[in-house]
């Protein structure tokens, strides 16, 4: 990980750590502007890409294509509804041993992993049954 960050990268990291939740690039831009920190949207995107490349933040892409960025350095696992977009965070992780094996067998430095299952939440299942 890079020890030297630009001022914009530092602002983004500080914001994500202080909020302790995932945000889209647009949300990061708005939040920084609301805090009177002048930054352009293109700079936000460039900074996020650089931080992602060095492993300083995590990125999760939603089914609608939107990316959410987080400073949390932990594995994240979700059940995501394809209809309403709700995501449920799950704690179980069946791939920790696989991650260690892959790092060892491929000499590949893994920063984090995500595991996501897509389907229908209970409410959307009920709506589907009613529509039939």
From TrEMBL:
InterPro entries: FUR (IPR002481), Fur_C (IPR043135), WH-like_DNA-bd_sf (IPR036388), WH_DNA-bd_sf (IPR036390)
Chain sites annotated for binding Fe cation: 113
GO process terms (BP): negative regulation of DNA-templated transcription; regulation of secondary metabolite biosynthetic process
Annotated protein name in UniProt: Transcriptional repressor
Recorded family membership: Belongs to the Fur family.
Species in which this protein is naturally found: Desertifilum tharense IPPAS B-1220
Cofactor annotation remark: Binds 1 zinc ion per subunit.
Binding site for Zn(2+): 81, 84, 121, 124
GO molecular function, one term: transcription cis-regulatory region binding
Cofactor: Zn(2+); Mn(2+); Fe(2+)
Keyword Ubl conjugation found: no
Residues that span the membrane, as ranges: none
Keyword set, alphabetical order: DNA-binding, Iron, Metal-binding, Repressor, Transcription, Transcription regulation, Zinc
